[in-house]
Amino acid sequence: MRVGVLTGGGDCPGLNAVIRAVVRKGVRGHGFEFVGYRDGWKGPLEGLTMELGIEQCRGILPRGGTILGSSRTNPFKVDGGVEQIKANLERDGVDALVAIGGEDTLGVATKLADLGVDVVGVPKTIDNDLSGTDFTFGFDTAVNIATEAIDRLHTTAESHHRVLVVEVMGRHAGWIALHSGIAGGASMVLIPEQPFDIEDVCARVTTRFESRYAPIIVVSEGAVPLEGGDMTLVSGEKDAFGHVRLGGIGDRLAGEIEQRTGAEARAVVLGHIQRGGTPTAFDRWLATRFGLQAIDAVADGDFGTMMALKGTRIERLPLIEGTGELKLVSDEEYAEAQVFFG
Ligand code: F6P
Q1: Distance from the CA of 246 to the center of ligand 1, in angstroms?
Q2: 237 and 212 within one domain
Q3: Ligand 1, from 11, 12, 126, 171: best to mutate by most atoms within 8 Å of Cβ?
Q4: Residues 64, 174: one domain?
C-alpha cells in the first residue's frame, strides 16, 4: 500500500514525531511505501510531493515545525478542488492518506472521507480545543513555554511595581491561558469563554499591589470584554477557513488598566514562540503514539477515523467526533483558577 502524509494548519511541536512514527511503523510493521504531501491540503491539491521514508525521518523526533511544511489551504474553497485531489492521489498511486491537523485540516478530512477518500486523522493543535481527545500534542509544550515566561515576568514586575499582561494563543478556547496561569500563579486569567469585567480586573490589580506583589494577568488572544466589543484583531482579512488574525488584547488591556488604576502596565505577546522549537517529552510521547495508532488504522482499513487520547489509551473515533464542536473551558474548570485571582 502507498500512503500519503500531510500536515495542515498552524504548526505545532510534535508534528515531526507523528510523521516519524507513521513512517517507521508503516515501513517496518506493514511494508507500506510513503509519499509526503507538502504544505497541508495544498500538496494533494496541486500535486506537491516529496520523498518520505525512514531516511527522511532520521533525527526529526525532537525538531519543532514539520518537515512536510504546512498551510491553511482549503480545497473546498477551490473550484474542482476535490476532483483535483482525487486525480492527484491516483496519479501518485496513493491508496490512503494520513492527515495531521486541527479543526480545519481534520474538517476537510471529514468531508473528503464522506466523498470516498480513504483518510485517517491525527489531531494536533497547541490550543487543545479539539473535542474527542483529552489532549492534543503541542499543547503541553505551549503551556510550558508560557509558564516559564510567567515565572520570569513575576520577578521583573515585582522589581518595578508594574502590572504585566501576558497575551497567549487561544482563539476560541482558553486552555493555554488557564493551564499556564494556574501553573505560573497568575493574578488573573482571562479567556474567550468568560467575558471579563474591566472594573473587576482593575480592582484585583489594586488588591494585588496591596499585598506587595505585582499582578500578572494572563489573557488569551480571543478574550473579550463584558461590556461588548469584538475580539481584538491584527487584521480583519479572513483565511480560507474564515478566521481573522487575532492579537492586541494584551496592549488594549494594559492601556485600560494604566488609565483606570494609575499603575504602570506593560503587555508581553508570546505569539509564535509558543509554537516553535522542540516538543516536551509528553508531546513527543503523545505524538509518537498517535502516529503508531494512525498507521495501524490505515492497515486495518479503518478510514474516516481519528486518533484520540482517553486517559492513557489511544482510541479511534469517527472524524466527526473530533471536528464537530470545539472543546471549551467549563465554568467549573475556570472556577479553579479564580480561587487565586487578586
Ligand atoms: O490554531 C492555533 C493557533 O496557534 C491559534 O491559537 C492562533 O490564533 C493561530 O493559530 C495563529 O495562526 P497563524 O500562525 O496562522 O497566525
Answers
A1: 8
A2: yes
A3: 171
A4: no
Which residue puts its alpha carbon closest to atom 8 of ligand 1? 171
Answer yes or no: do 181 and 270 share one domain: yes
Q: Which amino acids bring their CB within 6 angstroms of ligand 1?
A: 10, 102, 125-127, 169-171, 221, 245-246, 275
Instruction: State the distance from the centre of ligand 1 to the C-alpha of 175, rounded, in angstroms.
Output: 14
Cell of 285: 510521547
Ligand 1: centre distance to CA 129 (Å) = 12
> Regarding beta strands 49-51 and 313-318, do their DSSP bridges make them parallel or antiparallel, or are they unpaired?
unpaired
Whether the Cβ atoms of residue 132 and residue 306 lie closer than 8 Å to each other? yes
CATH number at residue 148: 3.40.50.460
For 295, the grid coordinates are: 498507521
Give the predicted TM-score (pTM) of the model.
Answer: 0.94
Q: Which residues are catalytic?
A: 127
pLDDT tens digits, one per residue of 149-203: 999 999 999 999 999 999 999 999 999 999 999 999 999 999 999 999 999 999 9
- Please tell me the chain's helix, strand, coil percentages from 3-state DSSP, rounded to the nearest 5: 40, 20, 40
Q: Would residue 35 count as lying in a domain?
A: yes
Give a yes or no: residue 341 inside a domain. no
Domain with 181 in it: 140-276
Q: Are residues 43 and 130 in the same domain?
A: yes
Q: Which ligand 1 atom is at minimum distance from the Cα of 245?
A: 16
Could you list the beta-strand ranges (E) of 102-252.
Answer: 119-123, 163-168, 188-190, 216-220, 233-235, 245-246
